[in-house]
Amino acid sequence: MPDLTAPRRTRRPRLARRGGPRPRVVTVVAVLVLVVAIAVGAAGPVRAGTGTRVPAARVPPTTAGDATWILSAQLPGGAIATYPDQQYIDPYVSSLAAIGVSRAYALTRTPRFAASVWAWLRWRCAHTAGRGYVDEHRIVGGVPVSVGDVDAIDSEAALFLLALHEQWRATGDTAVLGEFAGCITESVDAMEALQDFDGLTWAKPTWRVKYLMNEAEVFAGFRSAATMARALGDRELDVRATAASARVAAGLALLWNPATGGYDWAVHGNGARVPVDWRILYPDSMEQAWAAVFGLSAPVRSRDLMTSFVDYHPAWAQPSAVDLLEGAPGPVGYWPIAGWGLLAVGRRDEARAGAASIRAGADATRWAWPLDVAAVGGLIVLDSGRVPVGVG
Question: SS3 sequence, 9-32?
Fold first, then answer.
């Protein structure tokens, strides 16, 4: 039986971290989004890396507006808050948002998008205190104040590496990438320190649970670190990160459960494993989608996982629909990253339909919380039609 003293981990930011919605902020930002989106559409998008104009159909007309909305959550020092009211910084959420803004830069070549992401990455690395991860922060009087903890060290470090990888590929700036060489190594150190004998990582030393979602992110994070290390000529780090990713993959293979047609999604400190209950959207089914999204499962198995995911949860892209979360009925919320899984297995039409449905749900609430910068960043990527460079 699972260790019931260790509850299922909630990956979504809690409402208490914001202090409640602020409709005026959403209204102003929504208008700004519309204005920018119209302006960009009139100017015409450009092909990433070339400056060559491409047909508007190749670049979603919402891309620039979405990225601008995320930038409205960014503090002057570079930190990206979870929402434009700038009350809380969850670095995991911020890095997902940064991945979306990097994709927006790759599509539109808007300089401030690239500058915004570099600012976030620098802020993040400046606040790790050499540990390879950064704590969550409350924003008090416009100043970020550490809460002294982070939801999961393994995921935070991994998402930073994925965000840096996406930004480097979007900008092609290896010279700037070199500024992050030490931070890349520290993040690899942090993830390796959490690897157990089976290759899987604990969420953090004080929370000894191995989550399938985290393992998928860590696997991709190690691979991104190896790719960047090669570009920087750091063979030792390349070898280390490559070997570490292989250990994660080997550990995950042991979690396959033929009886459920999915992976056991958590391993507790006492060795107890939690099998997937496909009826539950989060965490059970969403954990399976993460394995497909981040390339941790083989292509055929990924296709099967996404088929089961959609079959059990046809309303996964309808934010106001009711499904089972944590075993109880509740609104689906925003999960554009699950749509990345459809992209990863070639179901592009369904991914596109999912993006449209998620956007309609956000528009219906005028982009109110619990929509956050991670969801909008994920939506930019989903709308673009291809997964991030370090994923899949």
Answer: CCCCCCHHHCCCCCHHHHHHHHHH
Q: Classify burial at 131, counting beta carbons within 10 Å of its beta carbon; exposed 0-12, middle 13-18, buried 19 or more.
A: middle
The rounded distance, in Å, linking the Cα atoms of 260 and 276 is 7
Longest distance between any two alpha carbons in the chain, whole Å: 59
Helix 63-71 and helix 23-43, axial crossing angle in degrees, nearest 10: 140
Cβ atoms 93, 82 nearer than 8 A: yes
Q: Rg of the chain over CA atoms, in angstroms? A: 20
pLDDT in 10s for each residue of the chain, 392 residues: 223 233 333 343 333 233 332 223 333 333 333 333 333 333 333 333 333 333 333 688 999 999 999 999 999 999 999 999 999 999 999 999 999 999 999 999 999 999 999 999 999 999 999 999 999 999 999 999 999 999 999 999 999 999 999 999 999 999 999 999 999 999 999 999 999 999 999 999 999 999 999 999 999 999 999 999 999 999 999 999 999 999 999 999 999 999 999 999 999 999 999 999 999 999 999 999 999 999 889 999 999 999 999 999 999 999 999 999 998 999 999 999 999 999 999 999 999 999 999 999 999 999 999 999 999 999 999 999 999 998 87
Phi/psi of residue 349, nearest 5 degrees:
-65, -40
This prediction has a pTM of 0.87
d(CA 339, CA 347): 9
- CA-nearest of 316, 218, 199, 208 to 266 is 208
Residue pointed to by tokens 């449209």? 356
